[in-house]
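batch_manifest entry 22 of 60
target: Threonine dehydratase
source organism: Thermodesulforhabdus norvegica
requested by: lab member K.T.
priority: normal
notes from requester: please return tokens only, no post-processing; we will run our own comparison against the previous entry in this batch. if the run fails, retry once and flag.
--- input ---
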Amino acid sequence: MEPYYSDQARYVNMLEVFRARSVIYRDIQRTLLHEYSRLSEELGARVFVKHENHLPTHSFKVRGAVNFMARAPREVLENGIVVATRGNHGLAVAWAAQKRGILCNVVVPEGNDPEVNDLIRAYGAQLIEHGADFYEAQDYCEELAENAGYYYLRQGNEPLLLTGIATMGLEIFEDLPEVDTIIMPIGGGTGCAALGLVIKHINPDVELIGVQAEKMPAFYESWKKGKRVTVPRSDTVAAGLAARSVFELPFTILRDTIRDVVLLSERELMDGVRLALRYTQNLAEVAGAASLACAFKIRNRLKGKKVVLVMTGSNISSQLVARILAG
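--- output ---
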């Protein structure tokens, strides 16, 4: 790992996670961990859903954003912030920045979901459309940070984001200390790595299973090869899983803590949204429902276990909902 990231990794620890918990509960509440009897009966296990979709901005990422904004360095307060996103990260940062009165610029790729764009504006951020994909939006953030003096908040490699998100793991262990398996989607790896950090220090015997789209298996390929891999650009219905590479800090944590990665086809990913509606009566985004789709795919491995499925978010466009429900 580069020296910069080695230095940053020192701040991703359990002391910082507990500090984050005392900060974020000023603005957000614990999320529900609920066992659905029909889901448990169907899968032959005790299955619990962690409802991160019930948070403000309807995604787990707001945990990290609130932690960062509450402890933002002076340059953020004075100059403002810029972030690149396709959705949940930008929504979370915009919401948390508005709470603190911090200037927030959100860069999205051209052609980004207009419903997401409207929500970002509603949280008081300046929306900038630039680039063909998330990675070109990231490059533009680098330019803005250099030329306009904004603080560029990189969503995967900021310790305060990771330790804020890790409070989700504390809640899982507090509500279900005897958990056997946790299933979590992986895009850039921040959320899953945050869980991996908590598992490592509380109960390393807990099995952490990641879920990715077959079309975008960046972490899966990196994990198999033992080094970060960038996969070719591809379209997947799961915007939250559309990462061509995993971030440096999450990869460092996950390569030693994750037990398995399950790849889902586009059909299986869309089935997850229907499964979430059928068994939990929650409308989840495609990435947010990936843990349910994974559980059905590997159901034989889960029998008799206590399993937590993380429903990471519910920001899904009305057009995509109609398409999925139409089959």
